């Protein structure tokens, strides 16, 4: 999977609906994430213009990792997703800034369709 594919998937952040499972992340405290064939960690640091969220992912077969970064102002969210075959739901997480917390939760995307 290319970095461009992950960036395009992350751009679709506002088409998600969240599931009940969510966990807060503390500044500079990494949290494990699982996206099916990819796994990794996410953490954030407080910056003057917002919280800088970093996600590092690698294939389970020890391929090189992929990193995604975003700076979140209060109330903003971003998504990291792995597309699946046509008609299947993507594996995805939503990372949101809620006040002074960063919350990571599994997300459900609409099924892929031919466009």
Commentary on this structure:
By secondary structure, the protein is mainly beta. It is built from one helix and eight strands; from the N terminus they run αββββββββ. The strands form two sheets. Strands 1-8-7-6 form a four-stranded antiparallel sheet. It has a four-stranded antiparallel sheet with strand order 2-3-4-5. β3 and β4 form a beta hairpin. The longest helix has 8 residues, at 3-10. The chain is globular, with a radius of gyration of 14 Å.
Find the count of extended strands (DSSP E, 2+ residues).
Answer: 8
* Major pleated sheet: 4 strands, antiparallel
Discrete helix count: 1
Strand order of the largest sheet: 1-8-7-6
What is the strand content? Answer: over 45%
Described by the principal axes of the CA atoms, the overall outline is globular
User: How far do the termini sit from each other?
Assistant: 20 Å
Q: In terms of quaternary structure, what is this? A: single chain
**What Rg is obtained from the alpha carbons, in whole angstroms?**
14 Å
What descriptive keywords fit this protein?
8 strands, 4-stranded antiparallel beta sheet, globular, mainly beta, disordered C terminus, single chain, 1 helix, 115 residues
